[in-house]
Structures are given as C-alpha cells and as structure tokens.
Amino acid sequence: MSPVFTDPLWRIPVRLNPVEVELLRTEPLRRLHFVAHAGASAISTLQSYSRLEHTLGVLALVAHFRPQDALLRVAALLHDIGHLPLSHTVEGIGGLDHHAIGSRLLRTEPIRAVLEGHGIDAEEVAAVLDGQPLSPLTGRSGLLNLDHLDSYVRSGRAAGSLDADPAVMLARLGLADSAVSTDRETAASLVALVCAEARLHTSWDNVGPVSVVRRLASQLLDHTTLTADRLARMTDHQLWSAFDACAATRAESAMIRYEPHRLQVTVGPATGEDRSGWDFSLRKIYGSAPLVEGERIEVSAPGPAAELNALRLLPTTFHVRWN
C-alpha cells in the first residue's frame, strides 16, 4: 500500500507512519477488505463497502484531529480486527464476541510483533481501545465518537441520505470532552444520519437477511465440524462457500442471496395462529449524539435530541418467514 492515501469520503490526505504501513500488510488488516461493514444487509442494499474502508476512514479522522498521537492512530487501525464475517451479523453465535477476538489478536502474532518492532506496547493499544484513558476513538457512552461518526456518514452516503458534503461537515467538527462537537445545524444533519441508520437496522432490508444468516451460521456449526473460532476468522466469501458446501444450509443460502423478496418480516413475535418462520430480536440500536458547541444535545438542541429519544420507540422484535 502507498504510504500516502486520501480517504474518498472525508477527502483527508493521510501520510502513513511506518508502523501503519506494516500493520496494513498483515492478515488481520487485509482480511477486513473482504468483510462487509453493513453485514448481511449488503445483500439487500447498496451498503457494500468493506470494514477496511471504514477502518481507514477512522484512521483519517484521527489523523485529522490528532495527527501526532501515534498510539491513537494505531488503535484506530486495529479497532475492528476482531470482526466476524459479515461484521455484526453473526455476533454472539457460538459465543463469539468481536471485542474479545480483537483483544486476543492484538496480543498475538503478527500484530504484536509489528507493534514491538516499532517500540509500541500492545497493552497500551489495548488500554486505548478499552477507553483507558478516554479518547475520541471510543468516547463517553451516548456521545458521538470518531468510530461512529465515520460509520453514520459512510452509511448515509451509501444509502443516499447524506445531505451535506463530508469535507464541509468536517470543517465544522471539533473535539470536546473526548467527543465530537459541532454547531447546531451540523448536529441536526448528524442526528438525521443516526436516525436513518436506526431505521435501516429495524427495516426489512436488515432484519430479513440478518435473521436468515444467523440461522444459517448456527446450523453450520451444528451440522459440520466447523468450530466457532474457525468461523470467526472467515471472510464473507468463505462463509458463503461454507453455507453452499453444507447440505443443511445450501438451499436457504441460495434463497437469501437470489430470492430475498420472498422473505416476509412483521413487527412483534409470532402469534398463536402463525407459528411458521422464526422470531428475531435486534441486539442493539445505536443512538449516540454529538455535543453542540461543547454542551450535551439535550441542553443545546432539544429538537434533534427529541428525534434521538424517539428511536426508543422503534421495534426491536420481529417475526420472519419465507413466503
């Protein structure tokens, strides 16, 4: 990889440090190029960008706001290395946790050796990723950090809901109290993106494919010799190939890729009259907010704050079945 790149979303030019160049040549980082950031909803939407593209976007933001903070820059590069195939889609299957996996990868080869070769302690990177000390990469609960900032804006661009030029937006952003801070107008634009992302997560486009792939992953572990640990290090393509190779998952794997229109999703669990299909619950709906001129949004921008608060009313339990 060239030691200089410009992130295409934020249009931030970044000159990579030697340790960053070397890390980007390792398998855990390269693998992220083959993992969809949006998970299984990449099947039904245009959210097809990779987890590596997001990672480089987060690095670009850190390099913009904290260019000399070498430790924070490395943490930005490594913050997602534990992600499973199709990202959050199979989180929890077989007890898998991408945070725990990432922590383990950080402390083992080849990552640890690369860090040590440049005089960086893996434990110090782990502490940053754990929020010790507090940083704009992880931030405070409920406040917008740089990781989620890139996710919301990048997703908004892919979904066609981004109504502002990211480079112009960036000029209006700052950091305060280890969180993203901005003016009222830009805060309203960011809140609109947060709400759009939440609505996407609770829509057919996400619930249907995610619920099917989670079922397939569980069946794959039940009907083959594949272990959860091996599944965790697959790429998306390898996971789909494993589905196709297993008699228990082959047919439904083809259906979700080529006939997703046959899926029906309704809000709420199955009723007594309809026991076909399966119930599905979302694990989490994200709703972090930027500070507005250094103050919490509830104080300085009650309108957007009310929009975020309304996300609590979105459904999180669904019934899914094939038609």
From TrEMBL:
<dbReference type="Pfam" id="PF01966">
    <property type="entry name" value="HD"/>
</dbReference>
<dbReference type="InterPro" id="IPR006674">
    <property type="entry name" value="HD_domain"/>
</dbReference>
<feature type="domain" description="HD">
    <location>
        <begin position="51"/>
        <end position="152"/>
    </location>
</feature>
<protein>
    <submittedName>
        <fullName>HD domain-containing protein</fullName>
    </submittedName>
</protein>
<dbReference type="InterPro" id="IPR003607">
    <property type="entry name" value="HD/PDEase_dom"/>
</dbReference>
